[in-house]
Design goal:
The chain is 91% helix and 0% strand. With 151 residues, it is mainly alpha-helical. Helix 1 packs antiparallel against helix 2. The longest helix has 72 residues.
């Protein structure tokens, strides 16, 4: 009789662990989504910064080229190479950030595919298993209460 009590207690402990596992793992998946969104926001902020810098550098280069053209008409010369380097640097930085954005989107898609399957496990399979386990516990507890016939 003590064995059935130990078995029921072990099943109850398994049930409690399953419930805790479900909630902890749901939180893990949610944190993964949060980290993806934080990374996207960070990269978008950097891309925005480099787009603004590129726009400014292009405007500065255009203004310099305008001054250089005016100076050339009068026999002068204006060096715009610094502005051209600023445009090239901003383009390179923006392209680098955009490549990371693309990579994050690809990896986020792969993560979400796996995470959605995992969430299905957490939200559908584990509750079914939980219900089944509770049924077993209930039947075992009922069987424990049954008295054997007396000879």
């Amino acid at each position: 009789m003590a064995e059935i009590h130990a078995d029921i207690d072990a099943l109850k402990a398994l049930h409690e662990a399953l419930v805790r596992y479900r909630y902890v793992q749901r939180d893990v998946a949610d944190r993964g989504d949060h980290e993806i969104e934080a990374t996207r926001a960070s990269l978008e902020a950097k891309a925005s910064k480099w787009r603004m810098r590129l726009d400014q550098a292009q405007a500065d280069l255009s203004a310099c080229e305008y001054r250089a053209a005016a100076a050339a008409e009068e026999g002068g010369w204006v060096d715009c190479s610094g502005f051209a380097r600023a445009v090239a640097e901003a383009e390179d930085r923006l392209a680098h950030v955009q490549s990371w954005q693309h990579r994050v989107e690809e990896e986020a898609g792969a993560f979400r595919t796996t995470a959605n399957r995992f969430r299905y496990l957490l939200e559908a399979d584990i509750p079914r298993t939980d219900d089944h386990l509770r049924g077993i516990i209930t039947r075992l507890e009922a069987a424990r209460r049954v008295q054997p016939p007396r000879p």
